[in-house]
Amino acid sequence: MTNFLIIAGKFIHRTLAATMIIAILQFISSDSRLFAQNKDDFKPSWEFGGTVFLDYFYKINGDTIYSGTADYAKTEKDFQAFSFRRVIFGARYNFAENISANTAIEANDLLTSTSGDRLFFVKFANAEFRKIFKYSKLLAGLSSTPTYSINAEPVWGYRSIEKTITDMRGLGASTDLGVMLTGNFSKDEMFGYSLMIGNGRGTKIATNKGKKFYGSLFGRFAGKKLITEIYSDYFFEPTDKSKITLKGFVGYTDESFAAGVEVIKQQQMNYYKDTADISPFGVSVFASAVLTKGKLKAFARYDFFDNDTDFEQGRSYAIQNYFKENFITLGIDYMPIKQLHIMPNIWINTYTDKRTTGAIDRRPDVVGRVTMAYFLVP
């Protein structure tokens, strides 16, 4: 499996590099379409928006002895608080029919100053050029990656409750600084693609010359209700470290029901202190349904996650690699208005120790929450 991933990673690396070079050349030569004079009725315009996720949570069960890849692992049992998990403000300026710029800043309770105040950081800052290819656009700057933002996250539909499994377990970032080409192969949008080259650091500043290559192919069937996707990325660093990710997604969505299955496998080569590989693997199954049109929905999700499928008995690991984890969430989504969601929900993460000697019976993290999410859009 490791050799296959290495070969696949090299192929992705070369293919994406060649494709992006072609896209840039096309971009330079596309002035007849991209930079064409605007129609007489076009006027430059601003668009503004925002997103807020606010929780009241109470940790019903768990411990604070061990770390983990999910939230609340280090939160003390019986702790309760109001918390901002996300506050985003963004702006978009439309320079021309085919050219726009997007900027957004974010704050949350995980990033604070020494005095305890929340700090804002740059979440998005990119220029968007549409129609450089037919049915395509190019984004340059800090933008969403194709890792889960195009298909898995929209079908899940409850980022306000929890990130997708890839994001939640730290296997891929939602944004990166680089260049992305995304679009469809035909007017009917049945088949599409996304290609990206970035620093591989998310919103953080690059610390070396390593780059991350992303590729996604997806299809939409049954009137765009059925969505399938094959995704891969390859991240290499100058210190002989590399990460290769393979991911598959199948989802269904219509006006009253949505469901999806996401499967991810990653190979982390030479990332551990003894130069051994780490191989995370996860499966996520989720669904949501309308109970009362425009007012009430229900949602549920189950994830299985193994921090290292190549686990070896007797080897020293970071504490999270000793465990297989199961995540469960379910709740009700009440919408007094379209842009405001009030969601009582339960959040559970359980642990199973893989060690045959010295195994620990770790208590599950159980958190009761009321989440309010609102979206600053018309």
Walkthrough of the structure:
There is one protein chain. This protein has 378 residues and is mostly beta strands. It has a single domain (2-26, 49-375), classed as Porin, CATH 2.40.160.10. It is built from 4 helices and 16 strands. Strands 1-2-3-4-5-6-7-8-9-10-11-12-13-14-15-16 form a 16-stranded antiparallel β-barrel. β6 and β7 form a beta hairpin. The longest helix has 27 residues, at 2-28. 33% of the residues are buried.
CATH topology: Porin
The structural class is: mainly beta
Q: Give the spatial strand order of the biggest sheet.
A: 1-2-3-4-5-6-7-8-9-10-11-12-13-14-15-16
Helix share bin:
10-25%
Q: What's the story with the biggest beta sheet? A: 16 strands, antiparallel, barrel
Count of beta strands: 16
Q: What is the annotated CATH architecture?
A: Beta Barrel
Low-confidence stretches: none
Précis, in short:
The protein is mostly beta strands and 378 residues long.
Layout of helices and strands:
Layout: H1 2-28, H2 31-34, E1 45-61, E2 80-96, E3 99-107, E4 121-130, E5 136-144, H3 152-156, H4 165-168, E6 175-184, E7 191-198, E8 211-221, E9 226-236, E10 242-253, E11 257-269, E12 281-292, E13 296-306, E14 323-337, E15 340-353, E16 365-375
Defining key terms:
single chain, 378 residues, Porin, 4 helices, 16 strands
